[in-house]
Amino acid sequence: MDRTQAAVFGLRVGHATVGDVWKAACEDIVERTAVSRASVWAFADGREKLVCLNLFDAARREHGGGMVLLRADHPDYFRAITNNSRVVASDALTHPATRCFAGTYFKGNDIRSLLDYIVLYENVAVGVLCCEQSGAMREWTPADSACLQSVAMLIGTVFLAVDGS
Fold first, then answer.
1. Cα separation of 162 and 56, whole Å?
2. pTM exceeding 0.70
3. Rounded distance, CA 143 to CA 125, Å?
4. Which of 21, 46, 87, 119 is 20 to 30 A distant from 162 in Cα terms?
5. Residues 4, 24: contact at Cβ < 8 Å?
6. CB-CB contact of 71 with 48 (8 Å)
């Protein structure tokens, strides 16, 4: 979490941007968990959608973002993440909360496993941290969960709700 801590500190003293925090968080997650991809998402429009603020692809060493997920298209996922504060899907293709992505997002990116944690800002759910494993299924460990929880808590200190919800 060294990159994330440095970026949060840099943001607070004016030497970094919030985008630097999102990039650092994703890179730290990929490095600490050896996952294929990590991303930071923000709730928007009264939590009716999630907007990808940053996605880091470990194989390509590239950052991207801008994707949007609508609650109306993925109600099981939105219900699971907001009710449980996390989604642990070793078999993301069949998990009740994530199978809605199987034919589109997962297929196009060869995603087999997903580990997501809610991000809180002042005890309000404002976003989601996501780990994706491509190629083969992965059993998520307590260390993987602890990493995501730690990063979520850290970035939650600087995370602002996209639309005030």
1. 21
2. yes
3. 23
4. 87
5. yes
6. yes
**Token pair for 97:** 């909360």
Low-confidence ranges of the chain (pLDDT < 50): 161-165
Q: What share of the chain is helix, strand, coil (3-state, %, to 5)?
A: 40, 30, 30
Distances, alpha carbon 92 to alpha carbons 48, 111, 140, 159, in Å: 22, 8, 12, 27
Tokens of 89: 């899907």
CA atoms within 13 A on the CB side of 108: 4
N-terminal to C-terminal alpha carbon distance within the chain: 28
Q: Which two tokens stand for residue 122?
A: 């002042």
Q: What are the tokens at 136?
A: 């083969």
**Residue 70, pLDDT score:** 95
Length of the chain counted residue by residue: 165
Q: How far apart are CA 144 and CA 52, in angstroms?
A: 21
The predicted pLDDT at position 2 comes to 85
| Tokens 């919800």 sit on residue | 165
Strand partners, 50: 43, 69
Buried b (16+ CB within 10 A) or exposed e, 8-44: beebeeeebebebbbbbbbbbbbbbbebbbbbbbbbb
